[in-house]
Design brief:
The chain is globular, with a radius of gyration of 20 Å. By secondary structure, it is an alpha/beta fold. About 35% of the residues lie in helices and about 25% in strands. The protein has one domain: NAD(P)-binding Rossmann-like Domain (Rossmann fold, 3-Layer(aba) Sandwich). Helix 5 crosses helix 7 and helix 7 crosses helix 8.
């Protein structure tokens, strides 16, 4: 078995990379140095640790990928910038569309048996129509569309996982839940909308188990290629109810006027939990929201 994890230095990618090392086979990591725009491919060696086996720019990445000859590729890479500017649009297109297309093309050349692409639920506001919530979501959908070409014309076996809101310990990016917990523990004022939106949170450990479940499925090409699945938690809550739950689970009360309901709801907000695709077969989340929230305070 040979695995290539694109985005191996990201939050989910790093955990998946380390988890797959426990399985038999070779595990390679692929990541980009944003400052230098240099790509690196690493290999975990149980004796010598992590070894850098290739470095270079995107135009030369094929040389590095041929060294790995992966049976499975998981593409977790993504630019997530939500502020539109010349630089952010270019970065979003390069990393979410161009890189994915190049990687999928090499997957076909190397006869990779399964290509797993991590996408988002936010490509549809109502769960029925294509209506991207953000430009980030639009680039993710564009990446999905390029994978249709590779699946249909090159017979690449593609699984696309549409993931809801990930949370977990040591998450580097600012997230609504972690910011709320931080405000509660530090007695800081917390600003939010009135909170009529439905929220679905999924713990990072459940995301990892779902990806591994996808990799372990029998290899077979079906008429449904790419295959689309939803990764979501079991608990659906209103955003306005989250402060009460956080207070209850952490056994700490909010102070009077500590929460300020002054943020607007964006025009294209997703108000209802309405997944467009079925849940991944044979997989169910394990982490309950109460247990997950309590685990986060140990990183504060």
């Amino acid at each position: 078995m040979s695995y290539l994890i694109a985005g191996s230095k990201g939050y989910v990618g790093k955990i998946l990379y380390n988890k797959l090392i426990e399985k038999e086979g070779e595990v390679f990591g692929l990541f980009r140095d944003k400052t230098e725009n240099i790509y690196s491919i690493t290999k975990n060696d149980l004796v010598n640790g992590e070894l850098v086996i290739w470095q270079g720019d995107l135009s030369r990445i094929g040389a590095g990928l041929r060294l790995t000859n992966p049976k499975f590729i998981v593409n977790l890479t993504a630019s997530i910038n939500k502020i539109l500017s010349f630089e952010s649009i270019r970065d979003l297109c390069r990393n979410n569309i161009e890189f994915n297309s190049i990687l999928a093309n090499f997957a076909c050349e190397l006869k990779t048996e399964r290509y797993v692409f991590i996408s988002t639920y936010s490509t549809s506001i109502d769960g029925l129509t294509y209506s991207p919530q953000t430009f980030y979501a639009a680039t993710k959908k564009a990446a999905e569309d390029t994978l249709v070409f590779f699946a249909q014309s090159k017979s690449l076996n593609v699984s696309i996982l549409h993931v809801y809101d990930i949370y977990g310990p040591d998450q580097p990016h600012r997230r609504f839940l972690s910011e709320m917990i931080d405000a509660l523990l530090r007695n800081k004022q917390f600003h939010m909308s009135i909170g009529n939106q439905e929220l679905n949170l999924i713990h990072v450990s459940d995301v990892i188990s779902a990806i591994i479940r996808t990799l372990d499925q029998p290899i077979m090409l079906t008429k449904e290629n790419p295959q689309h699945y939803t990764l979501s938690g079991d608990e659906i809550i209103k955003v306005r109810d989250l402060p009460v739950l956080v207070s209850k689970y952490l056994n700490r009360d909010w102070k009077v006027k500590q929460i300020v309901y002054d943020l607007p709801v964006r025009a294209n907000e997703i108000m209802k939990f309405n997944p467009e695709y079925p849940r991944l077969p044979g997989w169910n989340p394990i982490m309950k929201l109460e247990e997950g929230i309590r685990s986060l305070i140990f990183t504060k």
